[in-house]
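Hello again,

I reread your note about wanting to compare the complex against the isolated chains. To keep things tidy I'm splitting this into two emails, and this first one only covers the full assembly. Below are the input lines as submitted, including protein chains and any nucleic acid or small-molecule components. They are followed by the predicted structure of everything together. The single-chain runs will come separately.
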Amino acid sequence: MRVLAAMSGGVDSAVAAARAVDAGHDVVGVHMALSRTPAQERTGSRGCCSIEDASDARRAADVLGIPYYVWDMSERFEQTVVADFLSEYAAGRTPNPCVRCNEHVKFAALLDKALALGFDAVCTGHYARVVDRADGTRELHRALDAAKDQSYVLAVMGPERLARAVFPLGDVTSKSEVRAEAVARGLSVAAKPDSYDICFVADGDTQGFLQRALGEQPGDVVDESGAVVGRHDGAYAYTVGQRRGLALGRPAADGRPRYVLAVEPVQRRVVVGPAESLDVAHVVGASAVWFADVPAPGTTLTAQVRAHGADVPARVLAADADGVTVDVTGAGLRGVAAGQSLVLYDGTRVLGQATVAATRAPADVATDVVAAPGRTA
Amino acid sequence: MSPSPSRAVYLDHAATTPMRPAALGALTAALARTGNPSSLHTAGRTARRTVEESRERVAAALGARPSEVVWTAGGTEADNLAVKGLFWARHAQDARRRRVVVSAAEHHAVLDPAFWLAEHSGAELVLLPVDAEGVVEVDALRSELDEHGDAVALVSVMWANNEVGALQPLDEVVSLARRHGVPVHADAVQAVGQVPVDLAASGVDALTISGHKVGGPGSTGALLLRRGLDVTPVLHGGGQERGVRSGTLDAPLLAAFAAAVDEAVAERAEHAARVTALRDDLVRRVLADVPGATLRGPADGARRLPANAHLTFAGCEGDSLLYLLDAAGVEASTGSACQAGVPRPSHVLLAMGVGEDDARGALRFSLGATSTQDDVDAAVAALPAAVERARAAGLTSTLVGA
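Full-complex prediction:
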């Protein structure tokens, strides 16, 4: 196959490209330039946008003996990932920019351009497994190394794009295995630290980034009764489930910690309350993508709502091509914010993905499941 | 782990061109000899002799006196020395002289020092417009000098444009500047070996040349500096090159550089005729075979560098074309510098009034001493499919998910 290896400049994508070369593919490395004004040097937190990353990627491609190109995806990235990030926060939701990047850039603009140029597939350093069944169907599974598994952020790509994806790192058992392999291959990025932060927030200060982009929008922090318990500089800076950084002047009557229950940017209001008020019974997902047949109501499976969150038991209440509602009662899920991704699994296999539109609290669903209004988280 | 295979079709000689056997011979012959040309002992004298003979050779080939040759570590350094050195010296002589007048289509090695001077050294930058073929507007220079002649520190207009190949009207530039006593610098990096270049005959005051563009080694260059013209040094140190450019000289590199310049100039007429024929054939066939292809730069082949063909392909991205041609074994260039590896629409094309979208689909084919009809045939054969595919990809990347 002619394979385009997306190379961020990190160790994972470099080793993934190397494995694609070993597998006998005709590989070309491409680094996506995601910023028009790349940082000259890496700052405290790392980004995938720095010149240093681009040259690390090029050096790795040279070591592998493959052609290397930089493709300017900055406009697409700005229009989709960064703009979405800001508008979602401004709307009181909690976006996952890595999911959006996979959805709009990596497995969209990049993949489409690759296919148009005659490539058969795009290879990345994501930790996930692709399983090809005898009947010709292709499944997306969790990586062997559960700690590094990235199937959660990949699920958004859907089955058509999965058909064009290559994930050579799906069967590694640990990151140290990848680093050791990089050393053995003479890749200088072997010891490069992992990136954890949002790549376009160069200094790692997401709150500061939001504040610069969205401006100060001061308002009240209220409790569940509506009583004002504090002030904030911008509701967008808060995420459902957040406990730290609330800086509330008045302690709760019962002295127990308070959490963000809801973010209401239009009213410039942040609602706080006790942990149990974050309990979630139902999760309503929209914009669904299915890798398998739409599950029938009553199907039991597992659900994950955060990139590094737990996989919890769930039962399908309703599902169709566009959306899904699952019952997670008793699973201990708390503080699920609208905008997060809901990924459904059968064992290690990804069944589908949806964007959380709303959640329902246990009290709301106790009487009438179907009629209960969604609570905007 | 294996290095990429050497490709048969190399059409990027304006980026760099294979070293001439004469240069390679001169280099290897001198490499094993020890000696700092500044040393007084025998080893030093031997090295010095090589350096000075090389200087004489380059001077003779390009219509300069040996004392007018200032060695540098390449074209970029020579351009920097000319632009900054002339500005600083002329500004020091007369504080009114703050204006740095350069054409908008200059190489970054001239443009960026000019911008830098404006930002950090009190200069006022004046960009001369170019016409649709990439030729500097002489009338704009005339008005500039008529209005601000006393305030102009220098004029820098390249001999020939590195991207679109346009030969510049240096005769007119020089005669205008001379009336106002303003020195003229010309970057002749692409011109040497392709068109006649003669410092004395041209009337140019400072002339940049580069070794690796004419079949010499990389990191060699020179600024030919008219006698009596003051430049303030950029590099300070041991006082080599009469204090204008400090730094230990490398005798083997300079011997190879001189051999390359000498041979390139000696073979120029014959070489130019040969690559002109190849270039004209390439352009004619590409324009005939590839829909949406447009020749950029002067339409009249006699007014462009003989080895240069520059085309844009509507609806394509240059980097897609580069990849597809490379995969087909044809090596070319978009012709313009990139920022952090990101291709940007060429400032030269934009200055010529080419739209940003068209400018993205630029390809420069540049021929050299080793180019053959087979190379041209291969490029002509590979282009239609590459352009068709790149066009599909270009559209895809702007429409998907929109």
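For quick reference: The CA atoms of residues 283 and 309 of chain B lie 7 Å apart.

B.
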